[in-house]
Design goal:
single chain; alpha+beta; Structural Genomics Hypothetical 15.5 Kd Protein In mrcA-pckA Intergenic Region, Chain A; Pseudouridine synthase; eleven-stranded mixed beta sheet; four-stranded antiparallel beta sheet; 17 strands
């Protein structure tokens, strides 16, 4: 049995839709079966798929805890710095409305109640995420990520279309549309634009017109790698926001092929106790 409170202020929402939003990694059939059996109670009343919830409602879910309270996948921890592996599709934290019963942070809080995220990944992107259970370590890590100094991030991706050069550095500017939650690459400075730099290296061919690439975001802007590679003419497979939707349909079921695979703490990093350490997480076999 799992007790849950709907965040205050949430507008009336269909119960099944809310459950999927709050627990995005739980298979849909788990909720469908529970609602059919009336194993979900809203404010004490047995409820089904036709019911709604709103801010402040109390939910009681009679569902196996393995679906609702999974453990975090931990790559390294000394109970001060935590290096977790976030699965694709799992948000790092609750959304703007406070919805998020299953996030990377809630998983970490079961073992480290005071843990804080040092940086973020998009929900669709998987791989390494740093968190801290120690205030001093968190401040050091926050400084490193804020100043883009002291940590080197390496991503693995699958990119479409043949490359003219096996490696290179891309420079441009990024404009953010906060209302739409999207960004746009431009090639000259403009009001509100921030400079971006991305390094790429082609590694091997995964299929005709599809290449495994290593990416390094020298700057760390929202959606930088996805938007920059699409602007470069090599969108990432599975990216329906910035990429090639027609090409993506040739690989049904494939998620965004972007994975934070390695993180190196440099010798001059503010993370003084972890200088020289390197963390690696193998990318999935997408195709």
């Amino acid at each position: 049995m799992t007790a849950h409170r709907v965040p205050d202020g949430l507008a009336p929402t269909p119960l099944e839709k809310y459950l999927r939003r709050a627990w995005p990694m739980t298979p849909g059939h788990v909720f469908r079966d529970a609602l059919k059996k009336r194993d979900v109670r809203v404010n004490g009343a047995r409820s089904g798929a036709a019911d709604t919830v709103r801010g402040g409602d109390a939910l009681t879910l009679y569902i196996d805890a393995r679906w609702l309270e999974p453990e975090a996948d931990i790559l390294f921890s000394d109970d001060r710095l935590i290096v977790a592996i976030k699965p694709q599709g799992l948000p790092v934290d609750a959304d703007q409305s406070g919805v998020g019963a299953d996030t990377l942070l809630t998983r970490l809080h079961r073992r480290w109640p005071g843990a804080r995220l040092c940086h973020r990944l998009d929900a669709a992107t998987g791989g390494i995420v740093l968190a801290a259970a120690d205030d001093g370590v968190w401040e050091q890590a926050f400084q490193a990520f804020r100043d883009h100094k002291g940590v080197v991030k390496g991503y693995q991706a699958l990119a479409l279309r043949d490359f003219d050069r096996p490696e290179g550095t891309l420079d441009a500017y990024l404009l953010k549309d906060a209302r739409r939650g999207e960004v746009r690459v431009v090639h000259r400075d403009a009001p509100g634009a921030k400079p971006i730099r991305t390094r790429y290296r082609v590694q091997s061919q995964a299929a005709p017109g599809l290449w495994r690439v290593a990416l390094e975001p020298v700057t760390g802007r929202t959606h930088q790698l996805r938007a920059h590679m699409a602007d470069f003419g090599h969108p990432l497979l599975g990216d329906d926001r910035y990429g090639d939707r027609a090409a993506n349909r040739a690989y049904p079921g494939v998620k965004l092929c972007l994975w934070h695979a390695c993180l190196t703490v440099s010798e001059d990093s503010p993370l003084a106790d972890y200088r020289g350490m390197r963390f690696e997480a193998k990318a999935p076999e997408w195709v």
